[in-house]
Specification:
Number of helices: 2
Radius of gyration: 27 Å
Distance between the termini: 71 Å
């Protein structure tokens, strides 16, 4: 079954609704943005270090198991 046709909104009404919704947005403060950005960088570095260590541990184990490590 087809849903009933949606009521069309004029361009002016649409623009008014967009402005109304934009006023409801709560933007983070400068401090919150800087702290969040710093945390993203820190977590990225920690993840990179973790995967680097795990990769090397798996490579070492594979060399040990396959006898390719001399």
């Amino acid at each position: 079954m087809m849903p009933p046709a949606a009521q069309k909104t004029s361009v002016g009404e649409f623009a008014r609704q967009v402005r109304q919704e934009a006023h409801k947005v709560t933007w983070p403060s400068r401090k919150e943005t800087l702290v969040t950005t710093a945390m993203v960088f820190v977590m990225s570095v920690l993840a990179a270090i973790f995967f680097f260590v795990v990769d090397h541990a798996i490579a070492w184990a594979m060399r040990l198991v396959l006898g390719l490590g001399g």
